[in-house]
Design a protein that fits this description.
Length: 83
């Protein structure tokens, strides 16, 4: 069986700025947009060979911040096997 899907998400960052210090040498910080949107498309296919069940899937995402226009892209690929 094959499946295709799409998703749209809106997220809000409640914590604000994040900082991490590495060995008192360098402080990394990040201040994400308060609001961000994400869209995703993906698909999966399932099949069986004997007693083994397989599922392969793929998904790609694109995210953008509403305030600064920052963006990111990502993806996932996977294979599941049940025996």
């Amino acid at each position: 069986m094959a499946r295709l899907y799409g998703a749209a998400n809106i997220g809000h960052e409640f914590l604000g700025k994040t900082t991490a210090t590495v060995s008192d040498i360098y402080a990394f910080s990040s201040e994400p947009d308060d609001w961000a949107g994400e869209v995703a498309i993906g698909g999966a296919i399932d099949w069986q060979a004997g007693k083994l069940q397989y599922a392969a899937f793929a998904e790609i995402t694109a995210t953008t911040g509403f305030s600064t226009g920052s963006y990111s892209y990502g993806g996932n690929l996977g294979l599941k096997v049940k025996f």
